[in-house]
Amino acid sequence: MDTSTLALPEDVSAHGHHIDSLLALSHRFDLVLAVLMLGVLALFLWRYRGPRKVAADGGTVRSRAVVMVAALTIFGVVDGTLFARSLGYLDDVLWNFEVPAGHPGTVRVEVNARQWAWEVRYAGEDGRFNTADDVVTWSDLRVPVGVPVWVQLASTDVVHGFSLPNFRVKLDAIPGRVNQTWFQAAREGTWEVACYQHCGTSHYKMRGTVTAMSPEAYAVWLREAGRQAARAYDASDAAAHWGWEWRPTP
Ligand SMILES: [Cu+2]
Questions:
Q1: What homologous superfamily does CATH list for 105-234?
Q2: What would the pLDDT profile of 21-73 be if each residue is shown by its tens digit?
Q3: CA 247 to ligand 1 centroid distance, Å
Q4: Residue 171 Cα to ligand 1 middle (Å)
Q5: Whole-model pTM above 0.85?
Q6: Using CA atoms, how far apart are residues 139 and 207, in angstroms rounded to an integer?
């Protein structure tokens, strides 16, 4: 059997290992508890084998106390540990927008989800969104390696799910609001942008690519894309001007 199909997608982000280690920790807890519980079950099966008449007596006060203490201890240790480490990840990484806000090289992109594509908008040379020099791509997200990429996300029709499996990114695209997240590419390459909400008949087509490039290659691409965008710009095409003023840090 090909075990790679059971593994997580390759992590190519700077912070994805936090998620992976949380999952691995969760699985280790599962394994220990499963061995423990199945072991006790097997032990009791063997110990009390053979026919006998048993009347349920509800146990003694002491046996009930043992069960309660064991259950609460396991809950406290397992769920408490996972909860604390998840909060740490949220505080340090996922909800810590001071990182992209404070980094001079941060790339800001607006992503608009629609049936059935991802529209990606870069501010262009004026640094402002929804202006004539914006660079807009179709299901083609380009980012430089090694700097934070700050994504603000919306939808023009239904709820979509913006997902970069190789970057451990998942964020709902919801009509009428702007959600945000950030990530950072650790190496160059091209991977999948997927929609994780069933969003209509052609949901399966809602795939794009995310390409992490060297900063130099990214700069060259952005300049060329900017020239093309200027040529393609049509002030009367209202549907093309879906961008918004960059939202302040939450
Ligand atoms: Cu979708």
A1: Cupredoxins -  blue copper proteins (2.60.40.420)
A2: 999 999 999 999 999 999 999 999 999 888 887 778 878 999 999 999 999 99
A3: 23
A4: 12
A5: yes
A6: 7
